[in-house]
Structure formats: structure tokens, C-alpha cells
Amino acid sequence: MSGKILPKQPEANIGTLGHVDNGKSTIVQAITGIWPARHSEELRRGITIRIGYADAAIYRCPTCEEPFNYTTEEKCSICGSETVFERAISFIDCPGHHSLMVTMLSGAALFDGAVFVVDARHTFPQPQDSEHLQAASIMDIDKVIIAQNKIDVVSRERALQNYHEIREYLKMSKLEDCPIIPISAQHKVGVELLLWAIQKFIPTPFRDLSKPFRMPILRSFDVNPPGTPGNIIRGGVIGGSIVQGKIRVGDEIEIAPGIPLEDKPGSRYESIYTEVVNIKAGGRDVEEAMSGGLTGIETKLDPALTKADAMTGNIAGRPGTLPPTLYDLTLEYTLFKYVVGVKDKMEVTPIADKEPLVLNVYSAVTTGVVAYRTKDRIEINLMRPIVAQPGDKVSISRKIGAGWRLIGYGKIT
Questions:
Q1: Considering the domain boundaries, does residue 355 fall inside one?
Q2: Residue-number span of the structural domain to which 239 is assigned
């Protein structure tokens, strides 16, 4: 998708989680040299609004002592030795603001592990800290590293107090023993320890390359500058993470649900078919890309279809192999005891008939209206269809105040 030219295609996706202003994007920049936010409003406000991304190569110095011997450079800055390439990774930088929770859940669906960023100045957890931790639990993300950021602006006593706040909160959870790495992202202090922890605690998962290609679309672009002559216009670009199989230049792909047949609510959708023109992975053009990491695919699509993330939420795959397009959803669901991420405890009330809900499945975000419910099962009429299959996990949010807040999760039946 973006970044330096790496020795190899990224093989794992590392997400960033945590409350807004904790320094998630700054940590990604400290590691990769890239500010992951691209959107003009993000740059103006200094926060992540859309899903950000950046790639990095991790190297190990064979001379220096572990855990201080990890770097992103080909030469060790401590002893000057040539380093050994370990692996390439992709960072998926998620927004922390509560109003952007549904965007965060879209990115979390592609995580192989996460760096959870904490601001040492504040009592842990802040509202979006607990919300993101709950989301990680829903998505079965159990490979998590805590980055205790901004230790350069607190006393030793406050840093230790914050450490104990984190340990106390995580006690009796599946993240109870996750590592906590002190770091100052602004001054790039502790980066080598964080890279060591990523290597040790977030392994590359098994990828089944024998299965047909499939990629949830996380971003989409029109890469043509305004005024580009028609005879040199490049086709639309889709970006995401390949969850199974591999893709080659020249392959035909199907994108579903695709586009609506009519410009009105409740319209049926049809898949789009196109050809792969170019593939970019690890900051370079490649003939073939495999599962893992972030990948950009240039197609023969009209770029008007892909501009401004218009294809986000679709799934690309080998024609005829994608899960069905669903216009209605049946879920076995579980509600939390309390609404996640609000300052004061608010009990989750039962889901009501005809209640509007927001649902996240892979990179798709859709709204729906409850058509039927029991205490553990709901049927929902979707406003926009999704591509999914039985067993897929779905997060459930309801309108509370000015935003959509996480209240539970379900499994498609």
C-alpha cells in the first residue's frame, strides 16, 4: 500500500489501538518513518479519521544484546554491525475517537496482533481504552503488546502507578500477562524494545495459500491527478489484506456485493468483475502477492468506482468462490452488561423490535433494522448488503447520544 521499499512482502498485520491522543500514529511514524494519516482533515486536526497504514522491515543485530538489538535499519546504530532481516510487517492505524469506533472495528478485523497504546499521564483506562480492549476481545485478538507512551513527560512514580493501573485492569482477562513496553514515541525511545516484543509475542500466523484468493477491501483510490488525459488514465486501486490464497498480475477478480442495480434504498446489488493490472506490496511492484500484510491492487475498473474509499467494505476474490451476498442477517448474539466506552456506567438494555443497529463484518459497516428477536437470536434487515458466511463474527452498536456505541457481538447462523 505505502512506505519504504522492503526486502520482502509484509507477512503480518499489526494494529494500533487505544484512546484518541495516546500517540498511536506517532508510534507508527517512529517505527516506519511514515505518518499513517493521509486525509486532509486528519493532517489538519492531528488525529486518525480513516484507517491509516504503513509498512516496516524489522532487522536484528547479531552482535548487540537482546532485547536492545532490534531496529528498522540495515546497519545497527549502536555498534555499526550489519543487521539481519527478520520479517516485514504492516501497521493498521485505527482511530481512537469514540465517534469513529465503527471505523476502528473495520480495521480490527484484519489484525494478526495489536499494539495497544496507553498515555502514561492519564488514569487507565480512558473511555476509548476500554472500548478498544472490548473490541479486541470480540475479534479474538489475543496477541497484544501494551505500549506505555509519553513516559518522557511523567515522573518515575507516575509511570509506575500507570503500570500498576494497567496490570490491575487486565487482571483475570486473557491479556493479563501481555508485555508492557515503556516508550516515548516523540523521541523514539524504546522503539527497539517494542520491535523485540512484536517479534517475540506477535508471530506470523499460518496462511493457507492453497485456498482461492480473498481480500476484504479496506481502502480504495483514484490515483489519477485532476486533469489526467483520458488516454493515460490508470484504473481504480483497491487495498486491503489478503486473508487466504494469492493473486497475480493478469488474474480476474470478483468484487462483491459490488454496486447497486438502482439508485434507491433496498436495491439489489451485482458483483463487479475486473482484471489485475499491477500489484504493490512492501512499497514495490510485484507480480504476485500472498496472504499477510497490506496489498494494493491496480485494476481495470473505472477510477470513479474506487475514489474516496467507495469500495471499502466489499470483498475481492477469485470469481465464483466468494461467500453469498446477504440482504438479511440472522445472528446468535450476546449483549455486554454495560455500554462500552462511556464515562459513566450505563447498562445495556435489551434490543428492541425495529431498532436500528450498526453492524461490522470484516471491513464492512452496514446498518440494519431488527425484524425479529429473542433473548439470544435476532434477524436484521440490512440497509446495505454484506458478503459473509455462517460462523463469521459481527459487532453490534446502537445509537446512544450523538454516536454509535458498542453493546455486543454476534455470530452469523
A1: yes
A2: 214-317
